[in-house]
Amino acid sequence: MSQNPNLFLSVGKPVKDEYGRVIGKVASFAMTPNGKFDAVFIEFSGGQFSKQPMEQLKFTGSDVTFISTVKAQSSVLCDQIPLIWRKDQALRDLSDKKKISSEMYTELHTSFDSVITQLKKDAKILSDQISDQIATCEDEIKAMSYAVLNLEIEHEIGKVDEESYKSAFAMLQDNLKRTTQEKTELELARNKLANTMLGDTVGPVQKSKATVELAVDTKTELPEPPVVVYVKEIGKAGI
Predict the structure, then answer these.
(1) Diameter of the chain by CA atoms?
(2) H-type helices in 97-217, by residue range?
(3) What angle do CA 124, 133, 152 make, to 5 degrees?
(4) How do 14-16 and 63-66 pair as beta strands?
(5) What is the CA radius of gyration of the chain?
């Protein structure tokens, strides 16, 4: 494959996750001897330098999007596990129809069973990783909900001017929406993975309650706020 010069426009450009958050920047590319792009070197925001496969990223002009690792792995497992089950069932049918010997059936069935066992172990590990990421999202949503609430309080008592309030409120709402969307998609991936492990690949995946109104005056359930008491001293202006 010949080199695509357009990809080099991404060098030094920010790398964003699927929700628009900047997580690092492109440092360089790894190339095969025949000129094929093999991997991307990324410097992540925390200072970590990592080599990522091309399949993990999406390039749109100079824009670079990092695809969630757990969601990509979940999709692969949700395809692989049912496929091996179908192959094992087909093998059993062939055995019942006496089209293969019992020795051949036993050998191949043992092989399929071993693969399924390993895939289920991988799925369990991945499911735990997804649960950890969901918990992180929940912590972030809780923290940002407190931030919105306290911003509203300070604005209400005149401590934050209107322009600053609107800017901060918009920023918090955008981040709440991104994190809520991420949590919802992770929950869907985990549910689909669980259904696949149980052999339920036909039924609908249970949907998370994703449609959440995020403004303060809506029905979003915020953590119970701490009690804040303001005391206005006589003879002093302001609080």
Answers:
(1) 99
(2) 102-156, 162-197
(3) 155
(4) parallel
(5) 26
Within-domain flag for 57: yes
Q: Identify the DSSP state of 28.
A: E
| Burial readout 1-37 (b: 16 or more C-beta within 10 A, e: otherwise) | eeeeeebeebeeeebeeebebeebbbeebeeeeeeeb
Domain check: are 59 and 75 in the same one?
Answer: no
In a domain, residue 224? The reply is no
* pLDDT for 69: 87
Q: What's the mean pLDDT in 205-211?
A: 40
Give 107-126 pLDDT, tens digit per residue. Answer: 999 999 999 999 999 999 99
CA dihedral 41→44→48→49, nearest 10 degrees, is: 10
Beta strand pairing call for 57-60 and 63-66: antiparallel
Q: Indicate the pTM of the whole model.
A: 0.70
- Alpha-carbon distance 233 to 236, whole Å? 6
Beta partners for 42?
A: 26, 50
What is the domain-level CATH number for residue 28?
2.30.30.240
Instruction: For 17-38, write each residue's pLDDT tens digit.
Output: 998 889 999 999 998 888 888 8
- Tokens coding 224: 């119970």
Range of the domain at 34: 5-67
